[in-house]
Amino acid sequence: MSDETVHAERHTVTFQPLDRALEMRRGEKILAAALAANFPLPYSCQSGVCGSCKAKVTAGVCEHGDAQLAGLSTSEAEQGYVLLCQATPASDVTVECRTVPSVEGYPVRKTACRVAALERLADDVMRIRLKLPANVQFKFLPGQYVDLLIPGGVRRSLSIANSPEDEGFIELHLRNYGGPLSTFVFGKMKENDLLRLDGPFGTFFVRDDSDKPMILLASGTGFAPIKSIIEHELKKQSGRQMTLYWGGRRPHDLYFDSLARSWSRHGITYVPVVSDALSEDGWAGRAGFVHEAVMRDFADLSSYQVYACGAPVVVLSAKRDFTERCGLPDHEFFADIFVSGAAPSA
User: Fold this and answer.
1) What's the CA gap between 212 and 210, in Å, rounded?
2) Which residues form the 2Fe-2S ferredoxin-type domain (predicted)?
3) Which of 72, 172, 208, 329 has CA atoms 20 to 30 A from the CA of 62?
4) pLDDT at position 195, please?
């Protein structure tokens, strides 16, 4: 069978419990087609790492091809689970998947924006404030992200760092990893530059149908969506108990430490954790891996929700250890993983 014949094949994919169906080509990724049709499915990295889009095939056959599937265990695959971001239909298929109806009221928009302010929060972290057009109503949930487009066609996904109540602008935090966007922002971008953004995207946001205490876990600029979440919770006076753990290699990586400490007056517990402090840093606080600090303080997480954001190794280690060793229910772990490269991330 030729490649042309394979890609010409069309199959129906049915999504339960949504009771909705899509016809798609063999080779077309299921999640991408579902999101294009505005189906309210959970997702994050879209690269097979986080496992947010995990679903069970109850009829038919899906293929993953040569994709790397860090977010799917061998046992789960044997039970019929797939990652929709990488899975493609090889026949008519029915999948049982989790849904997030809350996102249906937050449509994706494409809009122009202008750089209102640039501020270095650390030598390698820039705060970007983008002014939105006065006639654009940009709605988002705290924790979601946008795709920022700059001259040359470069696109990068960045988490929104401000609360939705701050109307008219979007705040982003960018660490300088030396890529095309970092090179532009740290070397060429200036106030009043015209850019474009698409969004909001992602299903990393607080589940308001729960009153469980929250553990908020961030590494590096994973602090950005956590900041958005905390500021929104404070403004709406939710009253939920929140404990923030923020990890970095060295103290200066906790680039908004003073802000995080200021939240204590609102009843938020803040635990900064540094893994590789040098003697000249004078660090006297908690040391080691940030998720292990959580485990030392909370041996039993069975009655908590966890919201984690940052590097894959941090988030995946946290999910594994919190669920296997601390009793956290798998469905109470919510995460956004920052993946480098062209793949969408938060």
Assistant:
1) 6
2) 11-101
3) 329
4) 95
- Find all residues with CB under 8 Å of 160, minimum gap 6, and list them: 140, 142, 143, 144, 145, 146, 170, 171, 172, 199, 200, 224, 225, 228
Residue 257 tokens, joined: 């430490």
**CATH code at position 300:** 3.40.50.80
Domain assignment present for 345 = no
Number of domains in the chain: 3
218 and 172 in a common domain: no
The type of residue at 101 is: P
- Write out residues in the chain with pLDDT < 70, as ranges: 1-8, 340-346
Q: Residue 103 corresponds to which tokens in the numbers above?
A: 């996102």
Q: Report the distance separating Cα 300 and Cα 258, nearest Å.
A: 29
Structure tokens at 177: 């990893």
Radius of gyration of the chain measured on its C-alpha atoms: 21
Distances in whole angstroms, Cα of residue 211 to Cα of each of 77, 144, 208, 278, 304? 33, 21, 7, 40, 9
* pLDDT value for 346: 35
Q: Which domain holds residue 220?
A: 214-337
Q: In the structure encoding, which two tokens stand for residue 215, read together?
A: 């553990």
Q: What is the pLDDT of residue 343?
A: 37
Same domain, 223 and 333: yes
Query: Phi and psi of 339, rounded to 5°?
Result: -110, 130
CA 291-294-300 angle, to 5 degrees, is 120
**Please, are residues 143 and 204 in contact by the beta-carbon 8 Å criterion?**
yes
Residue 98's closest CA among 44, 25, 139, 36? 44
The answer on 331 and 233 residing in a single domain is yes
Per-residue model confidence (pLDDT) at position 159: 96
Q: Tell me what pLDDT residue 340 has.
A: 59
Q: Which parts of 238-300 fold into alpha helices (H)? A: 257-262, 290-297
Same domain membership, residue 333 and residue 218: yes
SS3 state of residue 29: coil
